[in-house]
Amino acid sequence: MVHDLLPPLQCLRAFLAVAEQRNFTRAGEVLGLTQTAVSHQIAKLEDWAGTPLFRRAPSGVTLTAAGARLHPQVEAGLAALRAGFAELREEPEVAEISVATTPELGTQWLGPRLERYLTLVPDVRIRMGVGHRRPDLRTSSDDMSVWPAPGGRGLVSYPLGLEEEFVVCAPEVSERLPERHGLWAAPLLRHAGSRQTVLDWERWYDQVVPDDPRVLPFEDCTFGPTYETFAEMIAACIEGEGLALVRTSLVHDEIERGRLVRAFSEIAPSDLQYHVTLSPEAARRPEVVAFADWLRREAG
């Protein structure tokens, strides 16, 4: 005869009740079953075990040797099950929020802030996905995005704050820059990025440098290496390898820590403004709205 790995749970409960009460009728009263139903469950368990588990006598019911060996195992097993489900009910329900963002903002701004938010709100789990293609929140599994563009039709979108483009460098590089033509005094660092989010040195130069014959042409600038990611470029900039063109949020923390400084006073408004965008369903979830509001406050 082929058995399942475990006998039915109701048979095990009947086994413990009969062992404790030493009487089928009283065991039935404890379980809310008839004496016949209890007898049926015990017979089914004995059939499954392949051996008698109780001795029946006019004076009462006692465990056989096999039943006595089994009893502590069953008792401990059911106790463990009860404890496990009780613990499960006591655990707070954890809400999951899925957020999509760009690699640059994910590594430089959003990622470092997630740990602090989860410390403040421990009953939320946040899953961050990065990529160069903005997800369509109307069809994707993401709840929200933090992206350098507003959301589309039918989505709830908020600007994070004013993004500006400017040049940064390590403090020791800043001290070596001349008062004039500082842009030509150190290598200009670049990163590959995506066509939509990469920062363009020549475009920035055309926006902030006046049309003055006394100013050196952009073509005379020296370019350093092109790094695979924005994070690698910023790491090189911190090490004093040259100048980096950045957006406000991408270097906020590094400037706060004094690892980078603004190299020049010239600033250009960025064409790409970061927005927090929620899907229609997520906009109705309080935990998602609370997280979006916190991000807006963090951005100032």
UniProtKB/TrEMBL annotation:
User: What InterPro entries does this protein's entry cite?
Assistant: LysR-type_TF_proteobact-type (IPR058163), LysR_HTH_N (IPR000847), LysR_subst-bd (IPR005119), WH-like_DNA-bd_sf (IPR036388), WH_DNA-bd_sf (IPR036390)
Q: Which residues belong to any copy of the HTH lysR-type domain?
A: 7-64
Transcription is among the record's keywords: yes
TM segments? none
Q: Which SUPFAM superfamilies match?
A: Periplasmic binding protein-like II, Winged helix' DNA-binding domain
Q: Which Gene Ontology terms cover its molecular function?
A: DNA-binding transcription factor activity; sequence-specific DNA binding
For this chain's UniProt record, which GO biological process terms are given? DNA-templated transcription
Q: Name one Pfam family in it.
A: LysR_substrate
Q: Which UniProt keywords apply?
A: DNA-binding, Transcription, Transcription regulation
What PROSITE patterns does this protein map onto?
Answer: HTH_LYSR (PS50931)
Record-stated family:
Belongs to the LysR transcriptional regulatory family.
The protein depicted here goes by the name: LysR family transcriptional regulator
